Amino acid sequence: MTCKRVQARNAELRGLGREFQTTNLKREGRLQFFFHCPQSSLPIRDVVGRKKKEPHIEKNAENYCKKCYQNNIIGFLKSREKYLFLFTKCANRKPPLHEFYGERLIVGYITKERCLIRGNHHHFAVQGFTKIVSFEDAFPLSKFGPRARYWRMKTFDKRETSVILEHLAPAKNIRTECIREISRWNQTGFKRDSPCK
Fold it and tell me: Domain-by-domain residue ranges, the chain?
């Protein structure tokens, strides 16, 4: 990008950033999809096959390293919604997860606390408290009916958000275990393309 184009883009992002809501949030949310790592029994992003970097739970963030469904993130940041629900399709066929294989599950959420401008001012990220639960404790999207199998992005009203949160509330937060698993695969499972700092 030329200097003038970079300056124009930075001004555009700053202007957009003023529209973002991080206070007086409502008990509402939206979905954010990620690819599950089939080699793992934990609900982590596919760091092995697809070399995914999002959601970046190490930093309690989504879109921290890479722009992913940016329109969904911008919509979330502009809204009064508080919860970004992380969902995936279980890709592990081995017991005991074989019963969840192919099922679309909400495995956690990030609460909207901060908006970050990332990637040399080219995209936005959301950061906040992050809770990740096991597949056994995850919320099956099928509870919302047969249409849910087609959802990639979806907003939830207060009632739907409450149903999800009540389901996830008693579950243990396994974020730390997931970070250890991501780290283990980063060290032994594949050669990393470009680290995210």
Answer: 19-188
